[in-house]
Write a structure and sequence with these properties.
The radius of gyration is 18 Å and the shape is globular. The strands form two sheets. The chain has a five-stranded parallel sheet with strand order 4-3-1-2-9, sandwiched between helices. It has a four-stranded parallel sheet with strand order 6-5-7-8. Helix content is 46%, strand content 15%. The chain has twelve helices and nine strands. Helix 2 links the parallel strand 1 and strand 2. With 259 residues, it is an alpha/beta fold.
């Protein structure tokens, strides 16, 4: 068991977005080693078919496990919705933690609020999201807004460029001043929180699933006796299917970005 405790946690997303989750994981579990894989060559998952997303996710997880991963985090709302159940069934002895739109904490915080959910088309189309909305919508008004192309635009960086703010305005501008909260239902979107606030208003509250995913990973590792016992700070490694110095440099910049 000691040797297994020393294994790494594999974290993956369709690209840079999952780095927002990775930041929460590292903050919650600073002594763990993490390997992040961004499938940027195939990004964004939110615009692929469910079969494509499942095949890509399965391939990444199998590679992580072959390299000695002790646990997996699916740092992608779309990939979680599509593949988490299948991957857990295939690997019942491995803690596999996913992420989902943070509608539950938003609804608890604002039980009568008007809550905007920004997500990919695939995430919003799947039964899992509709079940979540039914379970936690309660007396809230939940407004679901698909944002095609936004994750791909964030992948390019240059987050302060005017075209990105205009793109966001095109998706949610009609709700300016009229919503209480925004659920960031794609892991790319926390990186443009300030740009969304510029469009919707500074009083809007934001919710994303990163912190909850990190707490869930801690609980699963603890339950399985897999928490790292070392005192040193863990290592974080980055890899991408778009294996260029520029892409890995982008990952590191996103990891260090203030959001």
């Amino acid at each position: 068991m000691g040797e297994k405790r020393d294994g790494f946690v594999g974290v993956f997303d369709s690209g840079v977005g999952g780095i927002s989750v990775l930041r929460s994981l590292v903050a919650e579990l600073p002594h763990e080693d993490f390997r992040f894989f961004g499938d940027s060559a195939n990004a964004p998952y939110g615009e692929k078919t469910e079969a494509q997303v499942l095949d890509l996710s399965r391939s990444i997880v199998e590679r992580f496990l072959a390299d000695g991963a002790k646990a997996i985090v699916i740092a992608c709302n779309t990939a979680t919705s599509v593949s988490a159940a299948t991957l857990r069934a295939a690997h019942p002895d491995v803690p596999i933690v996913g992420i989902e739109p943070a509608l539950k904490p938003a609804a608890r915080a604002l039980p009568h609020g008007r809550i905007l959910v920004m997500a990919t088309e695939v995430t919003l189309r799947l039964d899992k999201y509709h079940e979540l909305a039914r379970a936690w919508g309660g007396e809230c008004e939940v407004i679901s807004v698909p944002c095609p192309g936004l994750a791909a635009r964030i992948e390019r960086g240059e987050l302060d460029a005017p075209d990105l703010t205009e793109m966001i305005r095109g998706f949610v501008g009609e709700y300016a001043g009229s919503v209480d909260a925004v659920v960031l239902g794609c892991t790319h979107y926390p990186f443009v929180r300030s740009q969304i606030a510029k469009v919707l208003g500074s009083n809007v509250r934001f919710f994303d699933g990163g912190a909850g995913t990190a707490r869930q990973l801690r609980a699963r590792l603890d339950a399985e006796g897999l928490l790292a016992l070392r005192e040193r700070t863990g290592h974080v490694e980055f890899a991408s299917s778009l294996d260029t110095p520029g892409e890995l440099g982008l990952y590191r910049r996103f990891f260090a970005l203030r959001i």
